[in-house]
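Checklist before submission:
- one chain only
- standard amino acids only
- sequence pasted in full

Submission:
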Amino acid sequence: MEPREDVRQKFQKDAFPRYLGVELLEVAPGYARVAMTLTENMLNFHDIGHGGAIFTLADTALGLASNSREEKSVALTVTINYLAPARAGQRLIATAREHLATRRTGIYDVTIEEEGSGRLIALARGTFFRPQV
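Returned file contents:
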């Protein structure tokens, strides 16, 4: 099944990721890849990537992957593990993959890596609910 075209359209209306410069690279059923370049405004007081900025990148990939099929999907929980610091100027790639999908729920895993080196920055997992409307 092809991803719903409206997923791409909805991404264009998602103001916060767009404000941060998140780019949609790829979307397919149960899968999404997005990218973001860390800017000085996305650093914390340690001069490394702010957890909120990195979480937003992961959450955006998870939301796109979970909504890539015919059903509407909303997050129930998302957890993230930060594994390595990210620095200003680094381009990060978040790849979300469906791990499990049922009629009402789904579990998705996401990796956040530094583009080029493939250095793992963070891992996230999201549980999603598909309300019956």
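Reviewer check: Residues 5-129 form a domain with the Thiol Ester Dehydrase; Chain A fold (CATH 3.10.129.10).
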